[in-house]
Every structure is written in structure tokens, then in C-alpha cells.
Amino acid sequence: MIGKLKCLCVGFLLLVASTTAVHGVSVSASVDRSSLTVNDTFEYKVVVQGASKSISIDPEFLREFHVIRQSTSQSYRMVNGTVSASHIKSFALRPRKVGEFTIPGAKVIVDQQTLQTEPIAVSVVEGSIAPSTPAASTQSSVEVKPQSSQASPDIFLLAQLSKNTAYVGEEVQYKLFLYRRVSRLNDLSYSLPDFGSVLSESLQRDTQTYRKSYGGKAYYVQEIDRRALFPYESGQLSIASSEAEITLGFYFNSQRIRSNTLELTILPVPEDSKPTDFSGLVGTYTLEKPVLESQAFVQGKPVAIKITVKGMGNLKQLSELTVKGDDDFKVYKSSVTDQITYIDQVQGERHFEYIIVPKKSGMMSLPQFMFSSFSPETKTYHVFRTQPIDVDIIASGEAVINDEKAGVGLSVLNEDLHYIVESFSLKQEARHFSEHVFAWVLGVLNGTFFLYVFGVFLDQKGYLQHVKQLIQRNPKQRALKSLNLLKGDVSSESFLSELQGVMYEFLGSVLKRSVQGVTQQELATKLSQSGVSESNIKDVKVFFDRCSFLAYSPKADVHSTSKELVEEAILLVKKVKKDV
Amino acid sequence: MIKKYLSLVVLMMVFSSTVFGSLMLNQAEQFYKDKKYDKALITYQHLLESSPKSVSLLYNIGNTYFKLNKVGYSIGYYRRALKWEPLNKDIRYNLTLARKGVVDSASVPNSIYQKVMGWVALISLNMSYYILMLSLFFVLLVFWCLQKKKFSREILMNVAVVSVVTCAMAFVLFFLTMNRYSQDYVVVIEKKASVYSGPSDVMALLFYVHEGHECKIVNTSGRWSEIELLNGFKGWIPTESLFSI
User: Fold this and answer.
1) ipTM of model over 0.85
2) Does residue A58 form part of some domain?
3) Do A169 and A193 reside in the same domain of the chain?
4) Inter-CA distances, A382 with A286, A288, A372, B30, Å
5) CB–CB of A457 and B147 under 8 A?
6) With contact defined as beta carbons under 8 Å apart, do B206 and B197 qualify?
7) What is the pLDDT of residues B130-163, one digit of tens each?
């Protein structure tokens, strides 16, 4: 029964993979054969598509087999100018014993997520070579053809290095170009060679397709990959070919082509005058001025200092700075952050943050931070160190009210004051608002406006009328008051006119209208209508007649009769008011 | 004739003092450029006697003191200048820079009141007065329009409410600013000054304050002043160790 099943397995191309996908990342596993003898070696392959970072797989799940070797490679696919990458982890396995085995799902850690492939069944028989059939990967959409070294000369890959000789740690650029005679390109997938011990960083490629003559023929040239290589072992490095699978159009078969191989001579950095703290940093670098978190130093209180190394090359090679003159300070490495760009070349900044704690108080120099690098251009070593910074450290007991508020925000050492004001007028002095005319104008304007608005408000509400009435509520008293005043000033030339004026005003307030210029007949009628008795009206008439007589008679003795007239007027006021 | 001569003499005196002041200013600027800060300071101080409220002059003196490593005076002059121009970016920047050199700074409670007072500090007394006057004028205008009954009463009533609230806020702002201006703020000018529990150096030593520390005077006794720090600490210090803002 088991044998029949085995035959069935041999008769079919067995598809034994499944896919798990999370957030655009998919994983699949496959074996190149499912039936084998105990002496055979087979390949177990895990393919991760869409992962932006490297993957990791713990091979513990393959404990039923001997892991002969394992390797990692990357494959790239370019469709319409967009490149997608696949990470492939391959294990060469040999069975330990005969039987039916199930390889458990591989746990793949991608971008801090764990994905798992489906288990795969493998049958292992004893003795001679088991009939085997290669099993195709479910992920492979392109049939694997024999390597096409006979690919059309109208299409080829060209690999180039920016230089043929470089120092250990120096950046060398690897560029891969696709040359083709036809402009159309349907599909392209390519894989780069294994660079071995050389660190490879992906750079931004030139996305333009341009025409170029090569060997007397015109080609469309497209850069498909660019890498920055940092070799770390001296000697001769052979870079294998890159491979690509290309489909030019619907009517074309896919072609597999490979690029030329390259040779790179890697020189060791010179031993002469090599600084003791040289970390292998090769390139062009500068050291920025350190930035102190605070300029106020207190004994035992930590202060952060930031040092920035800037330049072109593999900055990550510089893991830490050498500290010198730290006897009076405790120095701790706090953090390292990078701002590195991968455009034309690897360049950027590496920020080191150290914590400095002064051990004692007094005037002291901060520890110096240094590093060294080798410049391939000048073929010399450069030693960079921070400038000495003198600080006054306060004894811890003195700064009793110090707290975290002190020195909030970073103060840069090379910060300087904003410059003084030049050529200003000394007459332009600041003045209190009370010294400004405009302020007074505004104040008076507002005051007047307020009174006006308030007055209108009172008027509209009728309060103003009441006020007026309150003021004029006793015309009798006002008249009497005026007459008494006149009594003391009878010698005045205008005595008669003032006396008549007082009486007219009194009668006007009684009648609630002006009586100036009113005839005697009219006045009598109005007074009668107001309830004044006839005898009193007659007395009023007589009084005004007497005043007129005295005013116009040339022989009249005003002085002798003036007091008498005032008394008469007072009596009249009292009588009329009594009637009203 | 005498009147003519007198007016001519007065004119010449005014002209010569202006020209002389301008020349001294140029000289002080040159001293500053040549990093002869002590000479620049003397010249600026001389000019300050005739123009004590010149903001630019106060600012320049603050800069000169800073260059002479006298952070206390520097902060004092910047704050004097800031009193009249609280939004001047140069003064604010340099003041911030000068404050970084201060060894100790009292903890400030980060309450809403403190934040509000921080915003209020951005407005000068003159500015708060003009804000008050303008808001008052606007309120009166709205009430006048209401009396005239020419405009939509409903809209005007809403505007009136808003304007009255604005005016009330302007009043509060004005009085807060007045209150701030009336307080005696000082800055410590000694490198390290001892603060005692009473107006004598035989009293208990409470704590030290360092140059550039800002505080306010709450009481004086002879040549001693009682200061209150922003965190509420109080103590007595010789008045000559302080520079009035």
C-alpha cells in the first residue's frame, strides 16, 4: 500500500507549498523533491516576497534532518520600473532515517512579525536511488530554462565597478546596466551575485532609460541596480555575474542572461602612522562642534553632550569615539543616531550622545572626544578631536535650588548674541502711555463719547427730563432768591431790566412757556387760564406798568422806589404761586 | 536782538548735543566691533544718562555686559528693554541666551495661571492701554448704534455682548499689566550671593543664589532687601547684590 502511494507521488509533479501573507508580505516553502533515499540530499527553500528588511528563520524545525548547508539570496523583479524584492533562504538537507516525514512550517520573522509556512510531507526510502521528480515552486511564474548563455546579442547585462582598486573599507560602487536593442520591455527579474564578506548597501539608481552606442550598435540603456560595496578583507575579490530573466513582449519568449564578472583589488590600509584608535573608518569626514545640553555645570549632575561626525563613507564603522581627559568626569555613552542618505553615495551624519558627570567642582576642561579615519584620496590618516571647552563647575551643595528646569533646551556653544542695534536715534525713547498725546486724545474721546451715549440713554429713558424738572422744581424759590439779591443792589443801572427779567422768568416757569415779548393782554389771559386770581393779574399789570413808567420817565426817582418795587415783586411772586 | 542771539545759542546747543550723542554712539559701536567691550560699556553708560529709556541703548548695554561675562547685568538690561518692547525678537533671543548661563533657576509651577501670566508678559503697558481704549470705543460705538435704532437690533445685541466681554478682558489685561509693572523685579549681580533668614549676615544662611537669578523684592530694611524667588523661596540679601529691573 505504501509502495503504491510512493509510485503515485513519483508520477506527479508534487506541489508542496503554501503561502501566508500579512501586510503585503508573503512566505512560501517548497522542496525540490518529495521522494528520496536516505543518502540523498534535497533542497528546502523558503521564499519571502515583499519584505523590506532582512528575514530570519530558526532552523530548529529541521531537526529530523541533517542541515548540510544553508544560504540566503535575494531576487529582484522589475515591472514598469518598479522593483520588488524576494528573500530566499535555502537549506540543503539529508534525511537521518527512512520513513514518512512532515517538515513542520518554518517560522519566519519579517519586520517584527512572525509568519509560518505550511508543513511539507517527504518520503524517504532505503537503498538505491529513489525515482525523483523535481517539484516546482508555487511562487515561480516563469519556467526555469537552461541558462541562456546564447542569449541574443541584442540584449545583455553589463556590470561596472566605479574603481578597480580600493582600500579596505573604501566605498566602491557596483552598477548593473541592461542594454537592449528594442525599446519594449515587458518583464524583468534579476538577481545580484553574492558579494561574500563585502558589505553591500543599496543606492538610489538612475531611473532614466537613454540611448547609447555600444560596439557600433545603438542600445537602450537602463540602470537596473546600484550598490555601494565596502570590502573588509584585503586581496583579490571576484564578483560573480548577475543574472536576469527578461520578457521583451507578448510574442517573445523569456530570456535568461547574465552579466560579465568583475575583479576588484582590495588594498590594506597602510600600517605606517596608523592611529591607535583607528576603527577602520575610510572616507572623507568632519567633526562638528559639540553641543552641550546646558552650560550650567553642577558637581554630580549629568549633562548631555552631542557630537556629530559628518562625511562620506560607511559611518556605521565608527561605533564609538575615544574619550581623552576624563579623569575629572564620568563619561557614559548614551545613544548613537544616524542620518544617512543612500543617493549618489553613502553619506550623512552620525550623532553620538554622551553623558558627562563632573566629579568635582572648579574650573575644568571638558573631556575631548576623538576619532581617526583614513582618506583614500590623500592616502593619509586624519585625527579629529573636539576643541577643549573650559567650564566652571559649581559645587553640588551650592546649587540647592537647581532643578530640571535649569538649562531646558539645548544651548549651542557657537550660538552668539544677536548683534547690537547700530545707528539708532537716541531721541527715540520709550515713553509711558501717559506721556503720549495720542493716549490722552483717546482717553478724552472715549470719555466724551461715554458721556454722550450715557446722556442719550438717560434722555431716552426719560431720566433726563426728571432731572431737569428736579432742577426747575421751585421757580418761586429761585425768583425769591434773585429778588433778594436785587434788593441789595438797587443802585445798579440795569436794576429795572433785571427786575423785569426775574419776574418774566418766574411767570414763564409758572406758565411753562416763555413770556418775553408777550402782550399784557395775552399774559393776563394765560395767567387767568393757569388759575391766577383777577386781583393778582391786575397787580401784575400794575407792577409792569410801574416798571415801564420808571424806565422811560426822565424825572423818575428810581432809587427811592426800587426797594418798594422789589418788595412788591416778592409779594406778587408769593400770591401768584399760591394761586397756581 | 538779544532774543535772536539767545535762540541761536539754544539751537546750537541742541544741534551740538545731537551731533555729540551721535558721534559717541558711533564710537561705542566701533569699540564693540573691536571687542573693546569695557570701553564700549563706558560710552554706552554715558549715553544712557541722557537717554535712559532708549530701548536700543538698553539692548546694546545688555549685549556689552554679556560679552564682559556679567550675566546678571546683561539680564537686567535686557529685561529693562523688554519692558517697553516685549515682542522684540532680538531682545528675547539674547535674554534666553543669557539665561542659559545662569547656574540656578528656581522651579516654576507650570500652572494655568503661570501660563496666562507668561502671555500677559508679552504685552507692554502701553499696548494694554491702547487695547483697552480701542475696545472701550468699540463698546460705546455699539451702544450708540443701538440707541440710534438704525441697524438690526438682534445682530447689534450679539455684537454688544461680544464687545462687552472683550472690553472686560481688556480691563483685566490692563490691570494685570499695571500690577506687573508696579512690582520691583530684580536680578542678582553677584557671582554667588548668600540669602539669610533676616536683614543681617548673623542670621541663618538659607541658600545661595547665583548671578543672573531673577526675583522680586517684597520688603526692604536699610541696606537689605527681602526677595521672593519664583518658586516661593524667600530670604534677605544685601541690596547692592541686586540690580533693579
Assistant:
1) no
2) yes
3) yes
4) 10, 15, 5, 41
5) yes
6) yes
7) 999 999 999 999 988 888 877 788 888 889 999 9
